[in-house]
Amino acid sequence: MRTEYTGDIPLLKEGAHGLRANYGSQIYVGNGLDLTTLGTKSYGVYANGSYGSLVDIGSDSKIKTQGTSSTAAQISGTGSKLTIGDRALFDTQGNSAHGIYANGRNGTIDIGNDFILNTAGDSAHGIYAYGRDGTVDIGNGLILNTTGEKSYGVYLYGTKSSTLVYNSDVTLGQQSTIRTEGNGSHAAYMYSSDSSLTLGAKSNVTTLGDDAHGLYVSGLQSSSTTVIGDNGKIVAGDGMTINTSGSQSHGAFVNWNTGHIDFLGGANISTTGPDSYAIYANAGQITSLTDGKYIITGNILADNNGLIDLSMTDGSIFTGTSQSTGSTDGIINLAISGSASIWDMNGDSSLTGLRLADNATLKFNHADASFKTLNVTKNYTGTGGRIVMNTALGDDNSLTDKLVISGNTSGSTLVKVNNIGGNGGLTNLGIELIQVQGASDGEFVQDGRIIGGAFDYFLKRGDDTKGADVKNWYLTSVYTPTEPEPEPEPEPEPGEKPNPKPKPEPEPEPVRTTRPETASYAENLRAANTLFVTRLHDRNGHLPYIDPLTGEQQISALWMRQVGGHSRIRDTRNQFKTTSNSYVLQLGGHLIDEINDNGEWILGVMAGYANNHNSTDARLTGTSSKGRVNGYSLGVYGTWYQNKVDETGGYVDLWTLYNWFNNTVEGKGLSSEKYDSDGFTASIEGGYTFKLSDNQGVNYYVQPKAQAVWMGVKADNHRESSGVDVRGTGNDNVLTRLGIRAFFKDDSKTKDETNLQPYMEANWIHNTESFGVNMGNYQVTQDGTKNTFEAKLGLSGQINKKVSLWGDVTQQIGSRHYSDTAGMVGIKYQF
């Protein structure tokens, strides 16, 4: 019988059905159906019977039910069929009031796109497929919401007899959305044998409640009873999103030894509740049928012979732990590839097999300040992968993350190590980072510098000569020189007795691989203390100028000098070569210039700018660093001349400066370290000039002199981004200079003539301290500066009545290849 309806069907009485097709009857309803039922067991649409009953409803239909066990649409019997067009709206209210209930043998329910289904009540499922080999097909854009305890979004329940198993197949189209709110309310739940649920690409499931899983497969565990057709599965399309927030609410959960959850591509899975797993295979399998991008936030677990096997492509992010213990025979295999892919491992983990490829990263997370261990119970393969680990760098017993591989290794993997609060130390065997129990064919290659305190560490295979395992990989802070090939011993001449073997030489002391940044810090401090150090003649040249108005000799009222320098210096541990280039600009002028019976008294002010750029190469490790200093000075000076006019007799010169600098140290492959330094420097200098001849023309002079300079510029205590504390050493150094200056001048020159005065100096310089650095309680000090010889050759003269120039070249040399070369030029100009 065929029945056709159009328009609305009014509110029906309790227990009645809105549309019901029995025993092969057919009902056709046009577009825009609006149907409401009220009361217990009142169905909106019901297709029943054993002869293929049919209900066909057009688009834009609305079916609402209110009452316990009242279902919006149900099929039962054999071969029944329900077809509904696009944009349907189902709304049920009441306990056990389902949106769709498919209970027919070989029956089908087919609903179009943009279907909206809401249920409110306990045990009120959105789609309930109860065995009987029926099918439910929903188009794209489904929106399904359930509210109530144990109200599942989609529920597939299989039945069986002693010889037969009845199942259901449910297919949801692309961009389907399932949301459940209530304890025990799973988004998609399968309890059956051969049933299948397929969710289209870019679908989204969310559960709000405890013990409410996203995708859940459970069923009849194999036992002595024969189970026919044991292959139930949920297939999730590419781009699936799963979110759970309650306690013990898993994202993808298989709790059945033959159940499956298969991902057709990637998925975004997030679990935030306690005791919840993003992926949990408690028996059964959760696998990726094709490679895809996975965003997993939460832990994964496999036990009771469960299998998790994921192939994660570029852009995948896994934040959580993996647990696959041998005692439960769980299996987890992860293959992660792509430079934008990362496993952010935030707890101890274990898995069966791991493959990192194409710059994919395994990161040992240290946010909770604990070190982690990853156990790979089978094999590890690195195909251009990367591992980031953390270690409190010190001696062999340092706390560290560890990678333990029970099987074999192959391929190549970069390893980056972050120092977590370690001050460095001397290693023997090394800090064991990676342990390999099988064939250790894989190579683990250091990625960037590994620094702890004042030391560079290096990732190397174990040295079996020291007792380390050559299969394993260690961090070592000891320099290991390359052993030269032994020369063959000559054959003894006939009759000649061979010499007895010499006694073996004692093992040399291990050499720590010190960081080149230590030398950069030291050179920055030396530069800050010495750049503005001057002598009397540096400021005023040698000649007094001739006042153009009075014709009398005067000391210049204004002066300026510029200095360029180049230094070479090494350290006491003989590991570094440091070169530096500096520039100084100073200017000053007299405030007071008084002459009395006791001589001439001068008081002036001076200021300056200076910079220093230095670079250090590490001889043992091949690493390098750079230092930079930029700063200023401001101070006063005072000078007494016993006999200025003929430039004989004694003089005393004093000055003091306040200096302040910006400093930078930048190690190769490391971030820049910036810090300040400031402090005072002060000098006292004295000498006596002797005239060796008394001629009308050229006369010769010698000037013994001495100077003491106190250096009080100190660098701020600095903590590097690596966590190590840095303190400068060599504070309060006193430089003493003893020497002699010789010059000659032509006393026959008039005031209008150019008068040049060549001069030379030889000095011995002593420093009470050597500049250095204490980094993590390990000190590195500059070498060769304690005692140096200095030679200077220069020329000064009055060019005309207004302009005087002077310039010189200075060379210092010390032990251990220390040298300092400087050139200076100065000018005076009278207005």
UniProtKB/TrEMBL annotation:
Residues 551-831 form the Autotransporter domain. Residues 479-521 are annotated as: Disordered. It comes from the Bacteria. This is AIDA-I autotransporter. The gene is aidA-I_14. Residues 494-515 have a biased composition (Basic and acidic residues). Pfam families: AC_1 (PF18883), Autotransporter (PF03797). Residues 484-493 have a biased composition (Acidic residues). GO terms for cellular component: outer membrane. SMART domains: Autotransporter. PROSITE patterns: AUTOTRANSPORTER (PS51208). It comes from Budvicia aquatica.
